[in-house]
Amino acid sequence: MRYASEQLHTGAANFDRFTRSAFGLEPGEDVGRQLKSIAQAVAVPRGKFAPLDRELDQVAYLAGGATKLWARASKGREQIVAFHFGGDIVSIPADGVHSYAVTALVDTEMLLFPAREFFDRAAENSVVARALFDRLPAALHRCRDKAVALGRKSALERIAGFLVAMSKRVGRPEGNRCVLELPMSRRDIGDSLGLTIETVSRQLGVLREEGLIETQGRSCIVLFDLDALTRRAGHLCPSEDFHAPTSKIDLDQCDARARRLAPDSTEGN
Amino acid sequence: MRYASEQLHTGAANFDRFTRSAFGLEPGEDVGRQLKSIAQAVAVPRGKFAPLDRELDQVAYLAGGATKLWARASKGREQIVAFHFGGDIVSIPADGVHSYAVTALVDTEMLLFPAREFFDRAAENSVVARALFDRLPAALHRCRDKAVALGRKSALERIAGFLVAMSKRVGRPEGNRCVLELPMSRRDIGDSLGLTIETVSRQLGVLREEGLIETQGRSCIVLFDLDALTRRAGHLCPSEDFHAPTSKIDLDQCDARARRLAPDSTEGN
DNA sequence: CGCTTAATTGAGAGCCTTCAATCATCGTGG
DNA sequence: CCACGATGATTGAAGGCTCTCAATTAAGCG
Questions:
Q1: pLDDT, tens digit, for every residue of A127-168?
Q2: Residue pLDDT, tens place only, A190-233
Q3: Alpha-carbon A234 to chain mean position
Q4: Does residue B78 belong to the interface with chain A, where contact is any CB pair within 8 Å?
Q5: What's the CA gap between A69 and A104, in Å, rounded?
Q6: Helix, coil or strand: residue B13
Q7: Quick count: other Cβ atoms within 10 Å of Cβ A91?
Q8: Which nucleotide is nearest to B215 (CA to C1')?
Q9: Rounded distance, CA B207 to CA B195, Å?
């Protein structure tokens, strides 16, 4: 059951690389040692699951590669909740209302931590804590944007939004074009957007016929006009603040009874 | 533009109440003072927006009341991303791909913080940091569960899941029944589940005819069988670990090439 | 008690899914 | 290096679930 092939270490050098790239820590700090003592280094080949303990929340640091975090919903359909790439920190839920798994899209190396111990140690070091307070809310906000897309957007809007999002994470700019080398299949894209592969294919076809994108082989997509795609995604555009079809919420209409109160009025009620 | 009515203070006593209930802090600690210096106390009447700065990520602590966090998507449709109740800490995204707002479902009092400063100070105190490391991943995981529902579940499953989730947050057990006094309208429920009010109404009708629930007036729903509702929601059920329709992911099939490697093998690569 | 707003119920339309077949891509073996 | 086979992607037709539009009923408040 144990293949001879590759090697992977939680050794000092590797671990220093992790603490530096993830948290900006200098080698030799206490937290580093403490985190190392609960880390489990894992190499997951393309297409395989990460060996998770589903009884516990876990945290993973991706040293390299790409993964999908997904759950099984009804009728055997999968919902991908997030894609992750090298350098990312992944928060993986224990079995709750759904059962989650992490699958490698390409050969991936990761460090696995039990969430409780991980956060206990992180809370003791302000540098680590601060780094996590950047990442966790960011992950939450990405998930919220995804919820908006899944709940209220058409297939075309979701596809356009997916392309724009991917361009920011794995896009390679070439002049005013952007070349995407996607590590995930059409099925993965569909499972991420709550669509079928057929619909993904059809909507990509629509964008292709509009001249906004070009597909090359299975994994390469060229984006010709990111602004247009952003508009098609129903995203908030800097250029559209005025006569916006996707309008910003006008908080000035919010009624002044939502009063700001002097933060220093001593005591009270 | 400033109404004379109620009063609200960030005064010492109120603030101590906040730091104690949110973080388990004793009064008089440094963090408390530091957080207070950046806090803004706000009373938001039912149906009104919280006065947010959309240029900045923000954090809100709900002293009491109930709110919805929502975004505007295409065609003027809203997507509610989360409901929050008294005691909750809310992470509110700045304008990014979508524009978010917080609306009070009932009269609500909250403390608003700029996220950056809030987390900077939180990172310096391990007790506060630890508390947030409980709440932030929990919020993320709730959002992930919601994404699964929005992406891959039928209207009936979503409604059932909503009722089960609400029973845990605002449910009042009465014998083996559970009484829900919902602060949100059918429209809010629909906007939270990516459905229309009509569909919400129809699916509630289905559950009613099955004898699983009873509706009383606009805001009260009685749940007769939480287990059955949980199954209808397509959730993972403890009782269903064996012949599960909503199966857990079988990580034992995950192939052993996802090897666990000795965490102490010194140095390497 | 009447009015306003919310919720329910019904009929028809639309978008995405399902089912099915064809085509393309890419890895493998000759 | 090319042919082949397997898998993935594309395209087409039909069906289903939810939405839209419309009318009716109920709830809650003054």
A1: 999 999 999 999 999 999 999 999 999 999 999 999 999 999
A2: 999 999 999 999 999 999 999 999 999 999 999 999 999 999 99
A3: 20
A4: yes
A5: 9
A6: helix
A7: 24
A8: C7
A9: 16
Sequence-distant (6+) residues with CB within 8 A of B124 are A126, B31, B34
Please give the pLDDT value at position A121.
97
Chain B partners within 8 Å of A39 (Cβ): 263
**In contact, A50 and A42? CB cutoff 8 Å:** yes
What is the rounded average pLDDT for all residues in chain B? 88
Rounded CA–C1' distance between A106 and D13, in angstroms: 36
Strand D nucleotides, any atom under 7 Å from protein beta carbons: they are 8-13, 17-22, 27-28
Question: Does residue A242 carry a pLDDT above 60?
Answer: no
pLDDT digits (tens, 9 = 90+) for A90-108: 999 999 999 999 999 999 9
| Amino acid at position B41, single letter | A
φ, ψ of residue A196 in degrees (nearest 5):
-90, 160
Q: Which amino acid is at B123?
A: A
What is this structure's pTM? 0.91
What's the rounded Cα separation, in Å, for the pair A46 and A49?
Answer: 9
B-chain residues within 8 Å CB-CB of A144?
69, 71, 81-82, 93, 98, 100, 143
Spell out, as residue ranges, where chain B has pLDDT lower than 50: 1-7, 242-243, 256-269
